[in-house]
Design brief:
This protein is of the alpha/beta class. The chain has two domains: 137 residues, Peroxisomal Thiolase, Chain A, domain 1 (3-Layer(aba) Sandwich), CATH 3.40.47; 220 residues, 3-Layer(aba) Sandwich (Peroxisomal Thiolase, Chain A, domain 1). It has twelve helices and eleven strands. β10 and β11 form a beta hairpin. α5 crosses α10 and α9 packs across α10. The protein is globular.
Length: 381
């Protein structure tokens, strides 16, 4: 099977756009990604569109109405917070299968403000037999406290994640927020669900991101290999069966399963990864995913944040975009926005936040219910 490459990728600056439509927001990123590789919608053989809030509203077809109705197949995807990454993976799989040589993948969401619940309006996390709350802040507060009780992780260590990611966002012109948040400000912010204060919760924003994927033969034919980035691994997982935890949903097993398979597909290990964009929907989640992705051993995540290993300039920088905590989390766009961030570093085009010498990067998203997607990307030129 052919290797698959990202040849064009971009995202809009995340924000709030109440006067725009979802297709219009998505179309902007689509055109930006096409411009990035010098192609047009007429060069695309299929469109994979990710959107959660209007999952039954034919968003992909409406994006084509904005940028060119060429009659190509459109696949609309909804998969909780993994929606954009799922659209990307479906595009990758179609090229791997030999159906197409060139496809466009778009993720878009219009969130507005307010509390994000579980399940995207469906059943999502099953409530039967569970104690506590199924709201997202409560779920990840519970998961953080479980880690604290087991390994001694402190409120301050969780808060340091927010300090780091907000600092990184000051270097990212496409982040929703670009402000420093000192540790005392984070810890004394409004408490949402202990140990996550308001500044330790991802921000609901509007946004879009898009990527153009090509087969290896097509990349060479188009002369685009100099900026192309190889998709070394593309893996998805759902929750494996296990004995039910009657206190809280499992937010770890899905990622651990996908990470193991991604490393195997890529023929790499955690020590080969130069940067990671992971799903920091809450500060507690980022701490958990250091361990779930194998970036450190179980119980070592608190030390990693204390020692600066996951900050820009550290051993393995995590969420140098600002992450969901500061860049923002438009559900359907997040997965492809992560692809954009890592690709930009592998191309050496990330400016002040550039991870020097980056050759291998990983992206990770997880939507409870559950759907996890992990991609490993490689610089080739």
């Amino acid at each position: 099977m052919t290797d698959v490459y990202v040849v064009g990728v971009d995202m809009i600056k995340f924000g709030r756009f109440p006067d725009r439509s979802v297709p219009n927001i998505g179309a902007e990123a689509a055109l930006m990604a096409l411009d990035d590789c010098g192609l047009t919608i007429h060069d695309m053989q299929a469109l994979y569109s990710g959107n959660l809030g209007q999952a039954s509203a034919m968003v992909g077809q409406r994006i084509l109405q904005e940028i060119g109705q060429t009659g190509i197949p459109v696949v609309n995807v909804a998969n909780a917070c993994a929606t954009g990454a799922t659209a990307f993976r479906e595009g990758w799989a179609s090229i791997k299968a030999g159906l197409y040589d060139t496809v466009l993948c778009v993720g878009v969401e219009q969130m507005g403000k307010g509390l994000l619940g579980g399940g995207g309006g469906g059943t999502g996390i099953p409530k039967e037999g569970l104690l506590g709350s199924g709201t997202m802040p409560a779920v990840f507060a519970e998961a953080g406290m479980e880690h604290a009780n087991k390994f001694g992780t402190t409120f301050e260590q969780f808060a340091k994640v927010s300090v780091k990611n907000h600092h990184h966002s000051t270097l990212n012109p496409k982040a929703m927020y670009q402000i420093e948040t000192p540790l005392d400000v984070v810890m004394n912010a409004e408490m949402i669900s202990y140990p996550n204060t308001k500044l330790m919760c991802s921000v609901n924003v509007d946004g879009s991101a898009a990527a153009v994927l090509c087969s290896e033969a097509k990349v060479k034919e188009l002369g685009l290999m100099d900026r192309a980035v190889k998709v070394r691994a593309s893996v998805m997982s759902s929750d494996p069966w296990q004995e039910r935890d009657l206190v809280m949903p499992d937010v770890n097993s899905c990622t651990r399963k996908a990470a193991k398979e991604a490393y195997e597909m890529a023929g790499l290990g955690p020590n080969d990864i130069d940067l990671v964009e992971l799903h920091d929907c809450f500060a507690t989640a980022e701490i958990l995913h250091y361990e779930n992705l194998g970036l450190c051993g179980d119980g070592e995540a608190g030390r990693m944040i204390d020692d600066g290993e996951v900050a820009l300039g550290g051993r393995i920088p995590v969420n140098v975009s600002g992450g969901l905590l500061s860049k923002g989390h438009p559900l359907g766009a997040t997965g492809i926005a992560n692809i954009y961030e890592v690709t930009t570093h592998l191309r050496g085009e990330a400016g002040a936040r550039q991870v020097e010498g980056a050759r291998i990067g990983m992206t990770h998203v997880i939507g409870l219910g559950s759907a996890c997607a992990i991609h490993v990307l490689e610089k080739v030129a």
